[in-house]
Amino acid sequence: MKIAILYGSSHGKTSKVVAETVQHLNMPVDVFDVRLIGSSSELVDYDLFIFFSPTYGDEELQSDMEEFLLRCELSLAGKHFAICELGSYYGYEDFSFGAMRILRKHLLQWNGCELCEPLSLDSFPRTNREHLLNWVDYLKGQINEHFRFCNA
Amino acid sequence: MSTSDFATLEKIRRRVGRPFRFEMDRERCVALDLTSGEHIWSGLIRHHSQNDKDEILALVCQLDGLKKLNLRRNHLGRLPEAFADLTKLEELNLGSNTLGIIPPQLRGLKRLKYLHLGNNYITTVPEFVSELQGLEYFTLHKNIRIKSVENLAGLRQLKHLNLHYLNLHRLPQFIYEFRSLVTLTLWNVREIKDEIAYLTNLEFFSDCGCPGLRTLPDSLLTLRKLRMIRLFQNNLESLPKNFGDLENLEELSLYQNQLVRLPDSFAKLRKLRKLNLAWNRFRSVPACLAQCAALEWLAVFENPLKHGEVVAVPSQTKVLKVWPFTTLAQEEGVK
């Protein structure tokens, strides 16, 4: 089972969150800045894709990630994905920011299967590190459970 | 000319490539909306080439009977000179359009009541904006390079003003004179002056993202029409003793402050439906909340609460002690 982490980062915060995730996940993963991905052929060998993207502006996607979705259509049949969106929480019941909704729509359209509940991480101005690590633990559990079952 | 508007709309339709909403008054097009909630990117021409966008906008400018125009989330970058011909516009949404300036073509649009310029790259507010004196709703939010809004001084009819995520730090004195304001949204404004009491029509007030904001003036408590207050991501250490005087308050977000207790007067907030106390320093859920009879939603996650404490709140109150990963599961179920 091969895992790819794909992220878009404008000012470095998302790449730091990705680095922390990789460390806490403690599994072999390959990390891609989507800005540097030439074509979807670079990603054909992976079984699980974990996306990280901040929300900008008016519930919009980070620009590199938006450009990536328009440029590289992935064939995700039989493959899984998970999403962490970053943003600023506004204080009431809506904990989502917008990037996840756009990412998710594309990944489902490309026939991907969502592995687990996504994360909307409050990252501005302070990053909720504990919340991130809780999700990474949950993600790790889902990976172990699902892929152990697949390999049995 | 009636046929002309229909013909223009047909040309726009061909270039947009997707259905869009418009409204006719007899044979004149009076409203046009180049966004759609069914389109994942929302802006229907967001990913068109700059040339296509210019052509579509040139056609839009021929619809000179337009009263409402929504171009939000289209990354237009610029407006044609002929945009100045849309003199009948009353509502204009130019949010999320990568605009570096407030377009000078807006100068003559004296009938504007609603203007949305949020989420752009605007750096200054030019003088002519003060001439748009019919404006009742104006949002400039998320234009972080704007350091001054002095040229809004003439807009005394404003009812709704959104200055969220601008680089202001202080609120210009003239805004305290905008007596018609119903909504005032600020960000990182360190000092709320006593003159806030002049804004007697205020129903919605926000000042967030300000590490320097530690206390609130007592004069805020005279604004008895206030229904919603957002004060998240500040450094508030306490609230005024008589905070409960805001008896019409329905929603209050105090998320991410330094609060350890609420004043007892909170018990007087009988209309309070939503309260966010998350990411503060509460060691227990304040007892006064038991008397907030209308409370439906209470967030207390990310506080050092004692484990296993019984929370005394009205029976219908949904209490969030743990931060959910997302609201997606509640909305539609995770596949």
Set down the secondary structure blueprint:
The complex is a heterodimer of chains A (152) and B (335).
Chain A: E1 3-7, H1 13-25, E2 30-33, E3 48-56, E4 60-61, H2 63-71, E5 80-87, H3 99-109, E6 113-114, E7 119-122, H4 129-151
Parallel strand pairs in A: 1-2, 1-3, 3-5, 5-6, 5-7
Antiparallel strand pairs in A: 3-4
Helix pairs in contact in A: 1-4
Chain B: H1 2-16, E1 21-25, E2 28-33, H2 50-60, E3 68-70, E4 91-93, E5 114-116, E6 137-139, E7 160-162, E8 183-187, E9 204-208, E10 228-230, E11 251-253, E12 274-276, E13 297-299, E14 318-320, H3 328-331
Parallel strand pairs in B: 2-3, 3-4, 4-5, 5-6, 6-7, 7-8, 8-9, 9-10, 10-11, 11-12, 12-13, 13-14
Antiparallel strand pairs in B: 1-2
Question: How would you describe the overall organization of this protein?
Answer:
Chain A is α/β, with parallel strands linked by helices. Chain A has a single domain (3-151), classed as 3-Layer(aba) Sandwich (Rossmann fold), CATH 3.40.50. Chain A contains 4 helices and 7 strands; from the N terminus they run E-H-E-E-E-H-E-H-E-E-H. Chain A has helices spanning 13-25, 63-71, 99-109, 129-151; strands at 3-7, 30-33, 48-56, 60-61, 80-87, 113-114, 119-122. Chain A is globular and about 40 Å long. The mean pLDDT of chain A is 95. Chain B has 335 residues and is mainly β. Chain B has one domain: Ribonuclease Inhibitor (Leucine-rich repeat, LRR (right-handed beta-alpha superhelix)), CATH 3.80.10.10. Chain B has 3 helices and 14 strands. Chain B has helices at residues 2-16, 50-60, 328-331, and strands at 21-25, 28-33, 68-70, 91-93, 114-116, 137-139, 160-162, 183-187, 204-208, 228-230, 251-253, 274-276, 297-299, 318-320. The model of chain B has no long low-confidence stretch (mean pLDDT 95). At the A-B interface, helix 3, strand 6 and helix 4 of A face loops of B.
